[in-house]
Amino acid sequence: MSTAPVGVLGGTFDPVHNGHLRLAMEMAVALELAHVRLVPCARPPHRGAPTASPGQRSKWIRVAVSDEPRLRLDDRELLRDGPSYTVDTLASMRAEMPDTPLCLIMGRDVFAKLPQWHEWERIFDSAHIVLIDRPGIDCELDGAAAEALTQRQTDSHEALHRTLCGHIYTYMPPPLVISASYIRELLQRGESPRYLLPTAVLDDIMDAGVYQSQSATAASQ
Question: What class does this enzyme belong to in the EC scheme (predicted)?
Fold first, then answer.
């Protein structure tokens, strides 16, 4: 293929933070991607609804990536009715970019549950999977997930460039442990999560009072 792959990083982004952004940048550089699309989920089928609204979450991503051309917001799931199924998102991207390899980025813990996803095997008809392995995270794969890895794994990221879809490539990024749940906990306790997420995103969260408890909000005023 002559076209560089496009990375796809989905999630609730509730809120987007530096862990998300740094991982996306690592992928763009290490895998020589054209860019990485951050795709906020509207209605996650396998977890509770996000605290922040779709509009707030898309705004934060847009602000966070505004000065980085290798990272982009893709809000198609927020604009689509019904549950946010990854297979549908990738199929719509494939229709728009028929000659561009797509690389769906996910952690090993997420990949272990992939067989529970809606029409999960069709994902490989549209995209490769980049499997993120982090030191110290022990997540054994079994059943259909382990079988898919055995059948589709490649040791070369160049294979992601040569074909449109179907491979699994494992990548171990440098450790950077930041979680959206920890940021929400800090805000709910009235503590500062500064330097864990972009300053412009934190300022907007504080102005809107999205995650703060009433007592924490009063204490900060």
Answer: transferase
Provide the residue range defining the domain that includes 55. Answer: 6-171
Domain for residue 1, yes or no? no
d(CA 92, CA 17): 26
Give Cβ neighbours of residue 124 (< 8 Å, ≥ 6 apart): 148, 152, 165, 166
CATH number for the domain that contains residue 132: 3.40.50.620
pLDDT digits (tens, 9 = 90+) for 145-155: 999 999 999 99
Instruction: Scan for tokens 């503590």, then name that residue.
Output: 191
- Torsion 58-60-63-66 (CA) sign: negative
Residue pLDDT, tens place only, 179-197: 999 999 999 999 889 889 9
Residues 33 and 70 in one domain: yes
